[in-house]
Structures are given as structure tokens and as C-alpha cells.
Amino acid sequence: MPDERICARDGCGRPVRRRRPHAIFCSPNCATRAGNDKRKGPELPTQPCAFCGTEFVPVKKAHYCCSLICQQELAAKKRREASNGDDLFSRREVPALHHVEGVEEGEFAIYWADSHVPFADWPLMGAISKVIADFQPRREFIGGDAQDVFDLSKFDKNPTRRHNLSDEGSQVVAILDYRKSLAPGMEQYWEDGNHEDRFRHWLWRNAGSLYEIRDVDTGKPVLSIPALLKLAERGVHYYPFPSRLDYQGFIITHGPKRGGGGKHCAKWMSEYVRSSGVCFHYHRNQDYGWAGDDGQAQTFYAVGCTCTLQPEWLPFPDWQQGFGYSRVVNGKVHFTPVHIFDRTFIVEGQVYKY
Fold first, then answer.
1. Residue 348: which region, alpha, beta or left (left: phi > 0; alpha: psi -120 to 50)?
2. In degrees, to the nearest 5, what angle opens at C-alpha 243 toward C-alphas 256 and 194?
3. Domains plus CATH for the chain?
4. Which of 35, 197, 249, 334 could form a disulfide with 241 if both were Cys (CB 3.0 to 4.6 A apart)?
5. pLDDT surpasses 90 at 138
6. In sequence order, which residues have a C-beta less than 8 Å from that of residue 353 and are 6 or more positions away?
7. Exposed (0-12), middle (13-18) or buried (19+): which is 352, by Cβ within 10 Å?
8. pTM, to two decimals
9. CB 152 within 8 A of CB 169
10. What distance in Å separates the CA atoms of residue 113 and residue 153, rounded to the nearest whole number?
11. Rounded mean pLDDT of 141-147?
12. Above pLDDT 70, what percent of the chain?
């Protein structure tokens, strides 16, 4: 009787029926399975499931879950995390609420915005500088649209314009430096408005790869309004649009990112912010008061612009000029809007005419 051979596939143990002289497997099925085992290579070490933690022997190196169910659950978890924004962006543009620190009783602050340099009303800007020199405010809040950034707007532009983005920046920093020289102890707070935000959106549309260029030392973007104006070097507190400042519960913001306001902007903003505060953006002087949940008085203000009322691009605008000031009394910000009539205004009983 011929010698019987055992099937060459590991773990089989059955005899080989030698219908062919060189057969080493007991059946075609064993031959196929032996080939699969050879292709799989050596058995991989046990590892914990990436979802449930159970120890298992992976079939392939790319297997991280012990079962198809765990694999599906892990994928669903990653989708939920991505939907919360954790993995969507390397740098998210998220507006934030920032708190003004070190507030002292009785301190004086001044507020202005919407000068749209180079279209500022320069005599009015000079008069506000005189107020700063006279009252030595503790804080100066620049509420956005100080710079027009018209070169980067999507609107049609008059080709005879004689200024550019660099000219605007030079004039804006001249205002900041001059006022700081008038009141050396004054802290300056800069909030971007929708006009300064044109710079970021222009980069997104036309040069997205430049948006992520960072300073090797600070890690901050090289191409941005605060970088071009060197606000950090000037000691100016900077906040991107549309951030908000909380000044002892009094909210300071340029205005909404989109829509809202219209003719009754102060009322609309009061419902949008749901707190006492001040906005700019609308170029109108308004206020709207209401009683809070505990009966406390609440007021939201809209403050006019400091730009010219005869802009080249908009004939007969429905705008008013204005700015504001405040004092802290009993820990609360008492804000006073300044209305301008015939190039004359009053600050704490003192008359200014320009």
C-alpha cells in the first residue's frame, strides 16, 4: 500500500489521496486556503480595538477595530467631532467676547468709529483729539471702519483716486500715535469693522495660500490689518471683526456681520446683543431703552460716523456724525452720545466748535 501523506496546509491533518503524483493538499479547497494564508503573512500581534478597547488579532495592519460595528461607530464619532468644528480648520475665524480688564471707578473713556480714512472729516477728528487732550481719558475705543480699505472692495472704483491701501494705513497710524502723545496714559482698543474685514476676505478670494503665512517668531499672520499697522508694537489692543468688548457689562461692538438694523438700528441691536452697549456701522445717532428681567434700566446706543458727509460714492447720504464718551460710576458705565450740530458739540459742559 503506498505511503499516505498528510495535507500540507497547517492545521488540516487529513491524508492526501494521491490521484496525482505530486499532490500535497487533500483537496482544492485546502490548496486555496493555504495560498490565502501565505499571502496574509505571519499572524499579527493582538491590539486593542480603537472604539471599544477589546483585544483582538487584526487580519491586516490597517484593521483598527475588532468588528464592522465598531468600525462604523468609530467613523460616526469622527463625523460628529468634525461637525463641531474640531477638525475642520487649522485656524477657525470665531468671533469672541473679550473683557476689559483693570477698570477703575470714575475713569473716562472716549468712543469713535467710521472715519473711513482717507474720507475722514479731518476737522472733526482734530476736535476729538482736543477732547482727548483736555480730559486725558483712560481708554480710547475705536469701533471699526477707521480705515476704508476701498482698494479691496468689490464695488466699482473711480480710477482718478489718488490714494491706496498703504496711504490709508499711514494716515490711520498717524491718528493713533498723535492721540497717544496727547494722553500717554491712555489705552487704545481697536475693533475691526466690516471695512477692515475686506482685507481678510480679499485674501480668501484671491490669494488663499498667502492667508496662512505666519511670522516665525510670533506665529501671527503676516498679511493682516494689525500686522500692517503694527498695532501690537504700538501697544494697541486688537480685536477682529465681529468681536465684542465687555466693558463692565457694557457691550462695545462695530455692528452685525450681516443684515439687521435699518432705520431703527439701536432697537435692532438691543434685541441682537440683549445687553446695554454701543454700536457704530450705521452712521446714525440713536438710543433705545428698556427694562431688564430684574427691572434694571438698559440702553443700547448707535453712534454716528466721523467721516465726511459728502462721500464721492454716495450722494446725499442719510447719515449723522457723532462719537461718545463715558464715565464709570458705582462700577457701571454711564455712556453719553455726542451729537454734532453746525460743527459744534458739548462734552461734560465744555463747548467745542471746529
1. left
2. 50
3. 5-83 (no CATH), 97-353 (3.60.21.10)
4. 197
5. yes
6. 343, 344
7. middle
8. 0.74
9. no
10. 19
11. 96
12. 92
